[in-house]
């Protein structure tokens, strides 16, 4: 039996440390010192500089390898001369995610200037030796493809409160095909989370997903919310610093091809030419920084969305936004120009499509709105000058005539409702519901009609009951949300057909959220489940009081799984493309011919199978008649320019593909074989005669009419034969004989010259 003693053990007190300094410190004698030296010598350990801890050793080893790798890394050749062109930062994200706001905040950070709107590329000086060009990526596939071509850095904005949307994955996929540039994620709308714990979890989940899609450790920034309608200064500062020090490696294809991101353009066609013919070919001057390598005069250039053109000339211009080191100040009043945004109205000059505007301070302008607010009250009651009234009315106009015209349209034929444009509209739900019910509505309907509930549809009567109010409206909208989803499927034929699951583990779900149609990316794989587990673990840990960092709880096993899923995703690129192509096709222009005459007739079909069929038919008919009416040729030309030649050198230029012979066909090859020195000349001659008459060999008996030069015999067609029998007999036999001998002599001469044939 073990007993437990009641008294505790008496612990010995630790002895005091002897003092090393001060008056009470023991003075070291010389002999002591000598003794210590000897003992040091004795202690000398040959392994003194070897590691004693495995962790330290590991760290040392990894550092050495890293250094070695850095040494081995081949330096990139920078062939650019002079100042490097600004790096292009493409800001991408689904609609309303905060792209413009981010650009505005970044511009404000770098230049201390407020940007009123984001239009076209915005160039800013971000450091002593660096300039950046911000571009907002358009919300359509074609725009994304263009943006992927010139982006040096892509900022992918993600609505944190909603999650990933398909736009992000589509853009990532497009980037992959264009030689992946640097990519950074930015989470916005995080202020919508009220629960801090939920916010933390969502951040983790999104970060994980982002890492899975790009690479482990890809940078993801969080913008926690809005302060005075802008992103917090601190966060923008961090993001800006990150961009400023980022290393950009030139992509090899881009480094060997010249390209320009146009930041402004001018139409320099002589006005009289435009007056004479409004649709004349225009001369355009494009301005932008040249990147890649040098551009030669006369080179063919491709303008995205326009086509291939030849360059009339290239001129070097003064840098509109020079680096601070390179800028030469002319006077004291000259300040550094830290930005250049000709299309956005930043700075003193604003360039439009066809005009240049000069910015004048408000106090210098007589009738500006600001002055009006101050002076308006003082001048109350007084009649205004006619000119002033005119100016005021112009100032009050919200939309220019161009904009009004752009928004209006004449509906000649039944049109498909444009879902995407309506989705941007808050009233979109109502409109879609009405379209589902098969009604054609005009564009300019009164809001009252839109607000009328289902029973009022068609009558156009206003909702007279004021108390029918919000609740009903809300209910109606809810219904609308449900029906609109079904309706969308109906409209698209079959939604699942049109939008196949892009990856095995990523699916697209269309839904209304925050008043607009969104394409949510849903992940079917177990990564999110892992994360859920992870979250749960995390929760437990938190409960235990352990504050494990995220990376700490991320095991290597999970790493492996992630990599596996990565691999799977890469293998599904073609599925991505299917969807992209489907969504790009509707962007093609409406075919007016089809609208007027209905479906295209079979003869004009662009279907490749049909095309093949028709081309074979054409060949047959070609045999029948040699000469074709002019229209026929055009028809062939149209076919020649069909979908089969999409990859031709230049789709925009006139190429008569129909006139090109199909040299691969055996018959055509055979027909010219005997015309060469190795062939049978006699055959060639006879065939040549046949070809000249434009008939086939089989038809010779019926229509053929030729003279065999070898034998001197003459063949005539039946009809011709009857008519000209006498003529043949009358022909001089001696002359025929003479010709034949001449020919034989020639042949003998040739044989003598080339005995080997
Ligand atoms: N609450 C909140 N609102 C935000 C945040 N970011 C942007 N917004 C708001 O979202 C709206 C859309 O912002 P924009 O910058 O115009 O978005 P966008 O992506 O440029 O929109 P489009 O150009 O139409 O695609 C603005 O009203 C912003 O104030 C955010 O983090 N939190």
UniProtKB/TrEMBL annotation:
Basic residues composition bias: residue spans: 13-33
Keywords of this entry: ATP-binding, GTP-binding, Hydrolase, Nucleotide-binding, Nucleus, Phosphoprotein, Ribosome biogenesis
Instruction: Give Gene Ontology CC terms.
Output: nucleoplasm; small-subunit processome
Report the locations given in the UniProt record: Nucleus, Nucleolus
What Gene3D superfamilies does the database record attribute to this sequence? P-loop containing nucleotide triphosphate hydrolases
- Catalytic reaction(s) noted: GTP + H2O = GDP + phosphate + H(+)
- PROSITE patterns xref list: G_BMS1 (PS51714)
Q: Basic and acidic residues composition bias: which ranges?
A: 34-43, 471-480, 575-585, 626-639
GO biological-process terms attached to the record: ribosomal small subunit biogenesis
- What are the transmembrane regions? none
Q: Which Pfam families match?
A: AARP2CN
Segments for region (Disordered)? 1-79, 440-507, 520-649
For this protein, the record's InterPro entries field holds:
AARP2CN, Bms1/Tsr1, Bms1_N, G_Bms1/Tsr1_dom, P-loop_NTPase
Does the record bear GTP-binding in its keywords?
yes
Q: Which residues form the Bms1-type G domain?
A: 85-249
Q: Where is this chain compositionally biased, Acidic residues type?
A: 451-465, 525-546
One GO MF term on file is: hydrolase activity
| Protein family membership | Belongs to the TRAFAC class translation factor GTPase superfamily. Bms1-like GTPase family. BMS1 subfamily.
> Which PANTHER family does this entry report, sorted A to Z?
RIBOSOME BIOGENESIS PROTEIN, RIBOSOME BIOGENESIS PROTEIN BMS1 HOMOLOG
- The name under which this protein is listed is Bms1-type G domain-containing protein
What organism does the record attribute this protein to?
Vitis vinifera
């Amino acid at each position: 039996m073990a007993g437990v003693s009641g008294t505790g053990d008496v612990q010995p007190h630790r002895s005091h440390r002897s003092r090393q300094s001060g008056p009470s410190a023991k003075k070291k004698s010389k002999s002591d010192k000598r003794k210590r030296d000897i003992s040091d010598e004795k202690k000398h350990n040959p392994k003194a500089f070897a590691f004693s801890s495995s962790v330290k050793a590991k760290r040392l080893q990894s550092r050495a390898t890293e250094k070695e790798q850095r040494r081995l890394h081949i330096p990139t050749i920078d062939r650019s001369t002079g100042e490097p062109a600004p790096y292009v930062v493409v800001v991408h994200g689904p609609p309303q995610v905060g792209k413009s706001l981010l650009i505005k905040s970044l511009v404000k950070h770098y230049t201390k200037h407020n940007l009123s709107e984001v239009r076209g590329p915005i160039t800013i000086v971000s450091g002593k030796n660096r300039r950046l060009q911000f571009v907002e990526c358009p919300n359509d596939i074609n725009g994304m493809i263009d943006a992927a071509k010139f982006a040096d850095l892509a900022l992918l904005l993600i609505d944190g409160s909603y999650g990933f949307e398909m736009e992000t994955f589509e853009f990532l996929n497009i980037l992959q095909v264009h030689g992946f540039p640097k990519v950074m994620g930015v989470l916005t709308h995080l202020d919508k989370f009220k629960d801090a714990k939920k916010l933390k979890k969502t951040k983790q989940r999104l970060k994980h997903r982002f890492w899975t899609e790009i690479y482990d450790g890809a940078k993801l920034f969080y913008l926690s919310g809005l302060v005075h309608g802008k992103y917090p200064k601190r966060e923008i500062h961090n993001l800006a610093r990150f961009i400023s020090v980022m290393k950009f490696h030139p992509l090899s294809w881009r480094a060997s091809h010249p390209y320009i991101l146009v930041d402004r353009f001018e139409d320099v066609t002589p006005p009289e030419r435009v007056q004479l013919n409004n649709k004349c070919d225009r001369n355009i001057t494009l301005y932008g920084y040249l990147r890649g390598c040098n551009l030669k005069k006369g080179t063919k250039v491709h303008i995205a969305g326009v086509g291939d053109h030849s360059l009339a000339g290239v001129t070097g211009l003064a840098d509109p936004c020079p680096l601070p080191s390179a800028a030469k100040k002319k006077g004291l009043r000259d300040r550094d120009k830290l930005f250049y945004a000709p299309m956005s109205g930043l700075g003193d000059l604003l360039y439009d499509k066809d005009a240049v505007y000069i910015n004048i301070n408000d106090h210098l302008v007589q009738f500006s709105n600001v002055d009006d607010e101050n002076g308006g009250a003082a001048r109350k009651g007084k009649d205004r000058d006619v000119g002033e009234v005119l100016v005021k009315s112009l100032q009050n106009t919200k939309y220019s005539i161009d904009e009004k015209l752009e928004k209006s349209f004449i509906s000649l034929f039944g049109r498909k409702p444009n879902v995407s444009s309506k989705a941007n509209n808050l009233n979109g739900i109502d409109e879609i519901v009405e379209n589902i019910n098969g009604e054609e509505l005009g564009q300019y309907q009164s809001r009252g009609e839109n607000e009328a509930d289902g029973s009022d549809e068609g009558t156009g009567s206003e909702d007279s009951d004021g108390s029918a109010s919000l609740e009903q409206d809300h209910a109606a909208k809810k219904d609308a949300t449900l029906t609109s989803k079904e309706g969308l499927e109906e409209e698209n034929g079959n939604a699942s057909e049109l939008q196949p699951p892009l990856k095995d583990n990523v699916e697209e779900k269309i839904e209304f959220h925050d008043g607009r149609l969104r394409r949510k990316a849903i992940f079917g794989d177990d990564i999110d489940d892992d994360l859920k587990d992870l979250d749960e673990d995390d929760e437990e840990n938190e409960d235990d009081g352990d504050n494990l960092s995220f990376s700490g709880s991320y095991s290597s096993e999970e790493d492996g799984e992630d990599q596996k899923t990565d691999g799977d995703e890469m293998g599904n690129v073609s599925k991505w493309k299917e969807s992209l192509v489907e969504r790009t096709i509707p962007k093609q222009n409406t075919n007016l011919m089809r609208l007027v005459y209905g479906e295209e007739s079979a003869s004009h079909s662009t279907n490749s199978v049909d095309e093949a069929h028709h081309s074979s038919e054409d060949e047959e008919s070609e045999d029948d008649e040699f000469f074709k009416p002019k229209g026929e040729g055009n028809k062939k030309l149209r076919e020649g320019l069909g979908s089969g030649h999409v990859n031709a050198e230049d789709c925009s230029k006139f190429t008569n593909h129909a006139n090109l012979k199909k040299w691969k066909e055996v018959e055509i090859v055979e027909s010219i074989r005997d015309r060469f020195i190795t062939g049978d000349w006699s055959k060639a001659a006879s065939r040549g005669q046949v070809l000249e008459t434009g008939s086939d060999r089989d038809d010779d008996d019926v229509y053929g009419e030729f003279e065999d030069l070898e034998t001197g015999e003459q063949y005539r067609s039946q009809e011709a034969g009857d008519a000209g029998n006498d003529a043949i007999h009358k022909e001089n036999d001696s002359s025929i004989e003479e010709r034949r001998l001449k020919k034989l002599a020639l042949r003998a001469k040739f044989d003598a010259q080339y005995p080997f044939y």
